[in-house]
Structures are given as structure tokens and as C-alpha cells.
Amino acid sequence: MYHYRKTRTAYRKHNANDVKLQECTFCRDQSDKVIKENETMYIIPNRVSYDMFESMRVLDHLMVIPKKHHESMATFDDAEKIDAMKIIGEYEALGYNIYARAKDSVSRSVKHHHTHLLKLDNKPSNLVIYARKPYFMIAK
To answer: Which pTM was predicted?
Structure first.
């Protein structure tokens, strides 16, 4: 999962603002962004979509988020596990890829567990050049 320079800058800005908050980003009211929900989970668009995932362009980037604060799926109760799998399964059937980071992953930007749903263009890039400093990415 990669961002082009412009989206990487927006991603870092959002993360810096999140650090200033006194509460969890996903525990704040997200009702104006909710695309779909069930009893224990909701889906919102990712505020800064990945540009590339598995060497393919990302067409749509959504996130499944538990309504109750959890840092790991391991702490979901049975109802949350069932609701998560139902809602994720619906999107997998629509061609979305599923991705989540481990609780202690250094690249995880929000402690509240969230599962990414990624719709890809299914056209692998012939060439991807990525440099971290100075940051740039080229994909063909």
C-alpha cells in the first residue's frame, strides 16, 4: 500500500491532527460518513485512500470499523466477529480485497482496529519506482 506524494502529505497531516485529539478518531461521531452498518460495525471511506496496493491502482478504499473501541480483533465478542465477517464477506463478493494490520504494527496509524476494503483496477503495473527520501513514487 502506497501513496503518491500529494496523498502522503494529506495522510501525514491527518495523522498529526489525530495525535492532538483527546479521543480516538474512530470513536468520534462518524455518522455523516457511514456508507453501511450493522449492529456492531460500520463502513466509511478512508479519508486518504491508498494510491497503489499489490502493484495495482486503488479505485475505492473503505474501512470496516467496530462501533465499540477495540485495538484487536482478538477482543471482539461473538456478535462482533459474526457482524465483521458478514459485512466483510459482502464486500469481498463485490471484488474488494481485505487488509488489516496487527495490533502492534509500526505502520498502523490508529489504535482502534479497522479493516481495509480495497477495490483494485486489477491491472498490475509494469514498473513501480518508490523512494522514501526524498519521497516519490512512479507507477506505469
So the answer is: 0.79
